[in-house]
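Tip: read the tokens left to right.
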């Protein structure tokens, strides 16, 4: 039997790693110059998002009947966190207004 506490701790680590990786991938594909403050803020936000996603499914992690089910939960969680963050980034980029140049007289 899998210890439920250890399973949740592993899930939290995977969630945090997925959030951090998603933030890094988001920065890596942008064309903006590197801004350490913005980058660190993105990583912290990604980690928090990953942890919250794991906390939302703690009962599912604790009730996993075998290691295969737990592995499937972990992989789904990892891919889901990265996917949701990419969708969020795309939507916020679509909504954000671009700086308009001042009209020339």
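Filled-in amino acids:
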């Amino acid at each position: 039997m899998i210890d439920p506490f250890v399973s949740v701790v592993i899930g939290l680590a995977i969630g945090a790693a997925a959030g951090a990786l998603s933030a890094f991938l988001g920065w890596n594909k942008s064309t903006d110059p590197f801004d350490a403050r913005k980058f660190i803020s993105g990583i912290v936000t990604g980690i928090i998002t990953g942890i919250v996603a794991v906390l939302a499914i703690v009962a599912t992690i604790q009730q996993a009947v075998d290691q295969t089910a737990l592995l499937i939960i972990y992989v789904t969680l990892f891919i889901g966190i990265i996917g949701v963050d990419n969708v969020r980034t795309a939507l916020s980029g679509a909504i954000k207004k671009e700086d308009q140049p001042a009209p020339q007289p």
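Residues 67-95 form the longest helix (29 residues). Residues 4-88 form one domain.
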